[in-house]
Amino acid sequence: IHIEFYIINNDKIGNRIKNILITKAKEGVKVRLLFDDVGSWSLPKKYINELREAGVEVYPFMEVKFPLLTSKVNYRNHRKIVVVDGMVAYLGGMNIADRYIEGSRRLGQWHDTLLKIEGEAVHSLQVIFLLDWYFVTGDIVNNRTLYFPEIKVTNYHPLQIVTSGPDSDWASIMQVFFHAITRATHHIYISSPYFIPNESILTALKTAALSGVDVRIILPGKSDSTVVYWSSLSFVSELLDAGIKVYLFQNGFDHSKLIMIDSAFSSVGSANMDIRSFEDNFEVAAIIYDEQITKNLESSFMDKLIQCQIITTENWSKRPLKHSYKEAMARLISPLF
């Protein structure tokens, strides 16, 4: 069992996962766990020690002693990966924390998307985990037969696994998004909890809309990050000017990171539509070239629109002036968050 998460909390679901891993380790299953040291900063040593005492190998990713003073805080492992027996894998936007299941008092119910994968793409996620494991521990895991078993599947859904991070010269996930957006002919649907696009993505979206493509973006109606919330809203005016439809999700907090294009292309992963995910953090995404799966994601997207408030140019122009100041200030300081 290989698990890699940005956030692991010492709460009900966190302890449930811990107990399962302890049980499997005592049964003789090899269990490896990576967690980001900043995202899981509050994870107590007792939690980690209980896992290690049971035989689980646990390591923090890029351990940070003083998170407010070190540059390492900018290069975090934001990936969410689970690989079991080299046969089944999961990735998406969910972390290990109660709020992803039970919601929170301030934001209400959380909504997110996690993708289950079987087939050869599981091997790609296995490689990603083992590379991250080597980066952290220096250990080379090279039992190909054990970790990369032969996989037989009956259903064919083409997809590829894409990673990006500060260890690469290429912003691969951003480049995939940019290429897909520029090739859109009918529609582009995006759901992003943290929407702070770079100039390339912003220009591609506006150009697509001006070319007649139906571009719709769901943003949070309320967020767990005040600065990012107002910064995201700072882009609304220019999105509306280009003809892009912008919606604010009202039924809790939508944490999904999704993009669907022309019912033929979709992406599910850990990367937000922001500069931090594109350039600073270690991210992973499944790029799906399958009409059936993409249409399912689009159907879910359309269902969410019913739970949204659409922003019109008229009502946006009437928002309080102090909101404009908040948006401008948040956009200025957003690279720090």
Structure characterization notes:
The chain is built from 13 helices and 16 strands. It is α/β, with parallel strands linked by helices and 337 residues long. The strands form three sheets. Strands 8-15-14-13-9-10-11-16 form an eight-stranded mixed beta sheet, sandwiched between helices. A six-stranded mixed beta sheet has the order 3-2-1-4-5-7, sandwiched between helices. Strands 6-12 form a two-stranded parallel sheet. Strand 9, helix 7 and strand 10 form a beta-alpha-beta unit.
List keywords for this structure.
337 residues, Endonuclease, Chain A, eight-stranded mixed beta sheet, 13 helices
Write a short abstract of this structure.
The chain is α/β, with parallel strands linked by helices. The protein contains 13 helices and 16 strands.
CATH topology of the largest domain: Endonuclease, Chain A
- What structural class do you assign from the helix and strand content? alpha/beta
Number of strands: 16
Estimated helix fraction: 25-40%
Query: What's the CATH architecture of the largest domain?
Result: 2-Layer Sandwich
Highest-level CATH class of the largest domain: Alpha Beta
Q: Rg, please?
A: 20 Å
Helix count equals: 13
Please list the strands of the largest sheet in the order they lie side by side.
8-15-14-13-9-10-11-16
CATH homologous superfamily of the largest domain, by name? Endonuclease Chain A
Number of domains: 2
